[in-house]
Structure prediction request, 673 residues.
Amino acid sequence: MKTPQLLNYERDRWIAGDGDLAEISSAIDGEPVATTGSGGIDFGGMLRHAREVGGPALRKLTFHERARMIKALGLAIMARKEELYELNYLTGATRKDGWIDIEGGAGTLFSFSSKGRRELPDAHVLLDGQLEGLSKQGTFVGQHIYTPLQGAAVHINAFNFPVWGMLEKLAPTLLAGVAAIVKPASATAYLAEAAFRIMTEAKILPPGAIQLIVGGVGDLFDHLTGQDVVSFTGSAHTALKLRTHPTVIRESVRFVAEQDSLNASLLGPDAAPGTPEFDLFVREVATEMTVKAGQKCTAIRRAMAPAQYLDAVQQALAERLAKTKVGDPRAEDTRMGALVSVSQRDDVREKIAQLEAAGARIVAGDPNADPPIPGGAFLRPVLLRTDEPWRTDAVHDCEPFGPVSTIMPYKDIGDAIALANRGKGSLVLSLFTHSPDAAREFVQGAAAHHGRMLVIDRTNAAENTGHGSPLPVLVHGGPGRAGGSEEMGGVRGVKHYMQRTAIQSSPAMIAAITEQYIPGAPKHVIEVHPFRLKMSELHIGDTWKTASRTVTLEDIEHFAEFTGDKFYAHMDEEAARASPIFEGRVAHGYLILSFAAGLFVDPDPGPVLANTGLENLRFLTPLYPGDSMRVELSVRSKSLKSDETGVVRWAVEIFNQEDELVATYDLLTENVP
Ligand code: NAP
Prediction:
């Protein structure tokens, strides 16, 4: 049977590359799986298509509309996940490994979708921070905003997680409103292509939103502009080559890099053999060495322990690793499958030899053992040890991208911090300790060198998400050697594909530009009570003005007795006068809020279902007995949560009889759409 050829998705058409094709082999037995190539592809045309077709279509949608599409993509992947699991085995990965890649990828889409609907407005512009007052009368203000870049996002992915790696970049990119061109690593491009095909066949995205290159990127980099973003995952070597491309430098192309990293894990000074933290540490190091056959950018390459516990660590790890069944990833009892390819396995063997030459010695595993299946890219886990981590430079620098880790001793926490930081920047570091003092000293001493840190002890043993799992809501990335960038991290990751701009104008203009009501902007006073209107009948800037009421001394005393809040400023005239803030007794802030609700609430059941919160509360002018107060309630923004409910954010402004602002806050209500 002819080996199938992978196809490129160029300008919304599937196209076979011509010219020389590369053959991709199965990790299990070396048999051909597919051929791939991108000869003849119009790379400049792909970039133009993303900029002129995909980007504009995505930018027409709001954050919430894009968030719903991202969820639909996740559902499409889940509906056809078994097709992907079948291909996953050919990469050498077990079903459990595949779960991280395939369902972890879909889960990342779901997570971004839900973050997008909860944390981003149902609008086209994202505000950054609060309004900045720039003038005495408030007619000239400043507001930072984010808008989508108008170029293409070029995603270059590593081989190890072909589905997750693609989706963790696509989710924030599409949510931002930017079209993407995906280039998966060749070794596992057949799995990425299959997942990509599922997304295009689901017909969820507008034309031009995503394109695929299976093979080299040709002259694509020559056509990049300052509106494009390159988001790269892979080796430091390739990252350096791409980030120093003349066009990237000349056009100031945004370059996000996730590189290799010598991640460390530390056994705390308190975690002697026999403690739960000791056992957790051994389990985590062994897990990180064997999941995905150690081909994880976050895997533990350096395991550090107090010198007096190192022998015990070695023994416990060696016993655990010896029990790891290595073999056909399709077999249910297999714990670790194969590396992605024979050349990858040979690369790992070479790196092990480099570590040995530098003074580390193998204490468990044999890198040259025969593979369980002839032709397969298998390698048993290999544990190395160095007793002189200050003299064995290679252990802090050389990354065998496979089931390999080196154990080493440290003297005290200062020594451990210095050793951990010798990796010159890592994605993740874990510390196993039950001592808050050790955790504080260690994290404060090392955090600047690491993108993510876990402190694991007996209290979070059952629920921690593990050293090696990047999470969509937390940043993934690290300084220096790790690439100097961040990905994911919820909305933070979306901003990598947007431009921040400082806008200066009148409140009315800022409100029009941002599609949100801004205090000081014109209001549209409505006659029907807004609690009688569904979300779809409410408009941004619609304002309800209440009647006013007087606040009496009896009200203040009644409230004090009723609630027990007898703070001097409300109950002691002399002390209140003596304070630098008040001229006498004042109404409680909470009394003002309660009276405000009494003024603006319309009591009967209706489209407003519940009050779900209050944000940005400020008390600005004290209210004295005899003063009166009134409220203006304006629709600031609206967002749909589902077909049944949505959230309305109201700007609440409380004024006194002089029209001075007494208090402002945002009120959140759950509403019928
Ligand atoms: P790699 O050789 O650097 O390849 C990474 C990607 O770059 C692949 O898609 C590759 O495509 C592409 N590429 C290579 N040369 C290129 C060029 N001149 N122009 C455009 N694209 C080019 O890395 P790898 O060996 O596949 O991956 C393993 C490495 O990635 C390890 O060092 C690991 O630590 C790192 N990694 C880091 C993370 C992270 O999140 N930080 C995650 C996973 C892996 P081809 O495959 O077609 O050559």
Observations:
- The chain has a mean pLDDT of 95.
- Residues 523-671 form a domain with the Thiol Ester Dehydrase; Chain A fold (CATH 3.10.129.10).
- Residues 156-160, 183, 185-187, 217, 233-235, 238, 241-242, 258-260, 297, 399, 401, 427 surround NAP (CB under 6 Å).
